[in-house]
Amino acid sequence: MYLVDTNVISEARKGAQANPGVTAFWRGADATNIYLAAQTVGELRRGLENIRLRGDAGQAARLATWLDQVTTDYADRILAFDADCAQVWGKLMSPHPQHPIDKQIAAIALIHDLTVVTRHVDDFRGTGTRLHNPFR
Predict the structure, then answer these.
(1) How far apart (Å, rounded) are the C-alpha atoms in residues 132 and 119?
(2) Are the beta carbons of 132 and 24 closer than 8 angstroms?
């Protein structure tokens, strides 16, 4: 079972232009075994709001429609950051406080026994999470 990082679901949005490894990951995975962290939804929202603030209302609207579809499709597979995750996150942050959101995602993966699927495996190293980089 997989916890997909923001960069992987964003890449999948590119369709035929997406990285072939990412495309192969999505094709080969059972959709019911793919989860998102609430943090990923927040990062996607931040990205589209940044585009809106830059004045590209059309692209922001397309991304908002896509994000609405993602949150609908994954409604029962978006994992929250709860008190148990917070305990694990606190351990992961000490003594290396870099990448706090990635460590929150790692904590969720550890609590739910999921493999993190990400391009940025170095940001997750040392957390104890299983990692898969489909971009390779």
Answers:
(1) 8
(2) no
